[in-house]
Amino acid sequence: MAIKDELGRRGEERACTHLRAQGWMILDRNWRGDHGELDLIALEGDEIVVVEVKTRTDARYGHPLEAVDARKRARLWRLGVQWCLMHPDQARGRRLRVDAVALLGAEEFVVEHLRDLR
């Protein structure tokens, strides 16, 4: 496994730990749809939340959240709607939201969570 892939997996695991500590339920991980993959799908209260996870060892090439541009957000929304359509029992009557979690570090991560990306 490539070093960047291992870092990404550790970042996703840390993001799950962070969200669960906030009382969230992780519904799905690395879900593949027609136009790409969603890192995490979670339930916070009565909202379905698509969570994009970006992990970097440092900000040398920019902050991780800079990678979540308008094009990426639009794709996350499309995939989130597709996930909801394919999981009607879990999604029915719930609002959909897109969040991003950025992790900076190699072993110990600094975690930033942006809510409700449009």
Radius of gyration, in angstroms, nearest whole number: 14 Å
The end-to-end distance, rounded to whole angstroms, is 33 Å
| Overall pLDDT metric | 95
Q: Write the CATH architecture name of the domain at 1-59 and 98-118.
A: 3-Layer(aba) Sandwich
Structural class: alpha+beta
**Which strand order spans the largest sheet, edge to edge or round the barrel?**
1-2-3-4-5
Q: Based on DSSP secondary structure assignment, what is the total number of beta strands?
A: 5
Q: What is the 3D form? A: globular
| CATH fold label of the domain at 1-59 and 98-118 | Trna Endonuclease, Chain: A, domain 1
* Main pleated sheet: 5 strands, mixed
Number of helices: 3
What letter string, H or E per element, gives the SSE order? HEEEHHEE
Strand content: 35-45%
User: Can you tell me the residue ranges where pLDDT is under 50 for at least 5 consecutive residues?
Assistant: none
Give helix % range: 25-40%
CATH level 1 class label of the domain at 1-59 and 98-118: Alpha Beta
Description:
The chain is of the alpha+beta class and 118 residues long. It has a domain at 1-59 and 98-118: Trna Endonuclease, Chain: A, domain 1 (3-Layer(aba) Sandwich), CATH 3.40.1350.10. It is 34% helix and 36% strand. The protein contains 3 helices and 5 strands, in the order αβββααββ. The chain has helices at 3-21, 70-86, 88-91, and strands spanning 25-33, 36-44, 47-56, 95-104, 110-114. Strands 1-2-3-4-5 form a 5-stranded mixed beta sheet, sandwiched between helices. A hairpin with a 2-residue loop joins strand 1 (25-33) and strand 2.
